[in-house]
Structure formats: structure tokens, C-alpha cells
């Protein structure tokens, strides 16, 4: 049972009606809601004085807060959680929005990476918030690996898989790295890993380096280990292969504290706590909603996250997709959009790995 269930059970019908109307009005307007406004919206069933008494009781329970000296109230994070858990009415996805999602996700190119990028852009546009996509680790067999020097302290690891995906990773090469050592390292990895997946790569490369250390230039051996680490999750963010965040400007437009929002962006760039977030998103079926401090990644910015995992053809968790926005999100609209998008993304990921009808395309 969640922490708000006992409070909700103890509230009478009048308190529930007032609370529901107040939260729905706040989510629509973003402004504190007064007793006179609620009385009019509820058809004068209750007088402003009666509503004020109910609001005071709800404030004493920690459900409402008074941000200013005015009589208006706003829901607290605890109040929003109670509303989401017990009073939120989730409707069906709008047909027009379903069409937008189908076109963006179903009509994307054969590349999984491009499809996920399109899904993120589409979610940001529909929600007018930021979107977050945690992409799956590449499990297609490797076709080719290459290292490209960018600066003395930066290099690019380029990975091409047999299903056509091309992805890049920036990493810090060993000091003094030469072009010949980079070619030697790439040749070694291509000979060792071609046809294998990244999951297999770590143990295979470690064994081959130990066996052929004498044949490999010392710098090349170091580059092999550091370049592979850029792909194998041995960096901040753990097992997360790629993070796509679209629509940052939407968050900045309505932000009351720009410094906190910039901190959120910095945390996202560093993939801080996202591995834990993916675990939380997968804890149960369907959409999860995190409000404010319920997830430490978003606690400082006062943001909410609506997120759903997506699965591959074997029903294994491979990533998650969601919307980041202010705590006064239109949850009733955003939840079905995220849910439908996640299910469609999972189906498309499965089809791109096996082909329509379940035929393996590798």
C-alpha cells in the first residue's frame, strides 16, 4: 500500500470532491486556487466558507500549501502523489495523437537509433516538455570497430553492427597515442570481435590481450582496454548505452529556478542515477510517475517524470522512455501517450531485430 492510501481512505466524499477539483484546476492553470473559484466550479454545491474549512483540513494533513498570503492553495508533492494514485482519471489516447506517434515511431528508418531519436522528438513536441529515452545496449553482432583521434586527450570509438547501426563514443585515449597504435588496436579488435556482441566482448578481449600481450604494442593494448570500456558500461551511467534528451528549452521556459534546472541537465548529461532510474521504471508493469523528491535525480529541480520501460522480443527490459516536466503536468493526458509510445517502441525494436513476422534478420 502506498503512503497516501490511508489518508485517502479517511477522507469523506466532500473532502475528496474539493481536493480533486482543486488539483485539476491547479494542473490546468498553475495558479493557487481559492475557495470562491472552487465554489463556482462545483455549481455552488458548497459555500466558499465550507470549502475553506475543507481546505484548512487538507492543509493540516499535508495535502495542500499556501504559497502566498492569499487564500489560494496549491497541492503539495504529497498531495499530487495522492491525486495520481487514487483520484487521477486516465483516459484513452487521442486518435490524432495516436496518429502522430504511429507516424514518428512506425515510420522511422530501419535504424533503431534513428527510431528512438524520432520517438524522443515526437514526445517532446506532444507534451511541450522534455523527453527522455534510455536506449538499449547494442546486442547486434559487431561488424567493424574504428578509432579516430580528435585531440591529444580525446578520441572517438566508432562501432558498426551487422544490423546497420553506427554509434560513436568519446573517450580519453592513453597519453602519447600514435596513429599506428590506433590502427593496431582497431585491427586487433576487428579480428577478435567480428561477429560477436558487446556482451561477449569483455571476457574475450581480456583473454586475448593476456594471451597476445607480447604481440601488441603497449599503447595499443591500453587503447583496446579503454576503447572497449567506452562501450561496455564501465563509465558513469553503468549499463546505459545511450541517453537521448529532447526539448530542454521547454523546461527552461517555465522554470522558476534556472540554476536548479541547469543542475538537472548536468546530471542528465553525466547519466547520474539513471541506472537506478531504469530499475525503478521496470519495477512493475506499465507507466511509473515520479513527483519531485521521489527520485533524487529530479528532487532539486522540482520536476516530475512519467516513464515506462520497453521490452524486446524476448520480453526483456532494454530501455525506457518518458517525459520530464513541471509537477503540474497534465498526467491524465501524458500517461496514455507515454504508455502507447513505450509499447510501440518495444514492438518496433523487436521487429528491427527479428524482422516482421518473427524472422531473424541477422
TrEMBL record:
<dbReference type="Pfam" id="PF03444">
    <property type="entry name" value="WHD_HrcA"/>
</dbReference>
<comment type="function">
    <text>Negative regulator of class I heat shock genes (grpE-dnaK-dnaJ and groELS operons). Prevents heat-shock induction of these operons.</text>
</comment>
<dbReference type="GO" id="GO:0003677">
    <property type="term" value="F:DNA binding"/>
</dbReference>
<dbReference type="InterPro" id="IPR021153">
    <property type="entry name" value="HrcA_C"/>
</dbReference>
<dbReference type="Pfam" id="PF01628">
    <property type="entry name" value="HrcA"/>
</dbReference>
<keyword id="KW-0804">Transcription</keyword>
<keyword id="KW-0805">Transcription regulation</keyword>
<feature type="domain" description="Winged helix-turn-helix transcription repressor HrcA DNA-binding">
    <location>
        <begin position="14"/>
        <end position="77"/>
    </location>
</feature>
<dbReference type="InterPro" id="IPR036390">
    <property type="entry name" value="WH_DNA-bd_sf"/>
</dbReference>
<feature type="domain" description="Heat-inducible transcription repressor HrcA C-terminal">
    <location>
        <begin position="114"/>
        <end position="335"/>
    </location>
</feature>
<dbReference type="GO" id="GO:0045892">
    <property type="term" value="P:negative regulation of DNA-templated transcription"/>
</dbReference>
<dbReference type="InterPro" id="IPR029016">
    <property type="entry name" value="GAF-like_dom_sf"/>
</dbReference>
<comment type="similarity">
    <text>Belongs to the HrcA family.</text>
</comment>
<dbReference type="InterPro" id="IPR036388">
    <property type="entry name" value="WH-like_DNA-bd_sf"/>
</dbReference>
<protein>
    <recommendedName>
        <fullName>Heat-inducible transcription repressor HrcA</fullName>
    </recommendedName>
</protein>
<dbReference type="InterPro" id="IPR005104">
    <property type="entry name" value="WHTH_HrcA_DNA-bd"/>
</dbReference>
<keyword id="KW-0678">Repressor</keyword>
<keyword id="KW-0346">Stress response</keyword>
<dbReference type="InterPro" id="IPR023120">
    <property type="entry name" value="WHTH_transcript_rep_HrcA_IDD"/>
</dbReference>
<dbReference type="InterPro" id="IPR002571">
    <property type="entry name" value="HrcA"/>
</dbReference>
